[in-house]
Amino acid sequence: MTRIYTDEIINAVCLHMADRRGVQPSDVEVQLAWDEEYGFTAEVWVKGRSQYIIESNLLEAIEQYMYRQYSRRVFRTNIKLDVNEEEMWADIED
């Protein structure tokens, strides 16, 4: 099993949103969140415009990140997000 932490999840979302919006990854800012009502979400700013994404979008970004950065094809069903008071992480089954 592979585990990626908050910084890599943020990088995954930045790269994913940059591709979708046709901007540079440096033009994207991400703040990850978790709450009981909505689960895992992120607020994303692209060139100053705010957008919220849900867990399925986070999983899609992680899928693409794992393929591009690690040459590993993973599926959403193999990714489990978790969080504690200090950090968020994704466990990815082999």
Would you write up a description of this structure?
Helix content is 34%, strand content 38%. The strands form two sheets. Strands 1-6-5 form a three-stranded antiparallel sheet. A three-stranded antiparallel sheet has the order 2-3-4. Strand 3 and strand 4 (49-54) form a beta hairpin. It has 94 residues and is of the alpha+beta class. It contains two helices and six strands; from the N terminus they run βαβββαββ. It has one domain.
Provide a count of the helices.
2
Helix content: 25-40%
In one word, what is the shape?
A: globular
Strand order of the largest sheet: 1-6-5
Number of strands: 6
Mean pLDDT: 96
Query: Rg, please?
Result: 13 Å
Pairing-aware structural class of the strands and helices? alpha+beta
One letter per element, helices H and strands E, the order comes to EHEEEHEE
Strand content: 35-45%
How many structural domains can be distinguished in the coordinates?
A: 1
Instruction: State the separation between the terminal residues, measured CA to CA.
Output: 5 Å
Report the sheet with the most strands, covering strand number, pairing sense and barrel closure.
Answer: 3 strands, antiparallel
Low-confidence parts, pLDDT < 50 over ≥5 residues? Answer: none
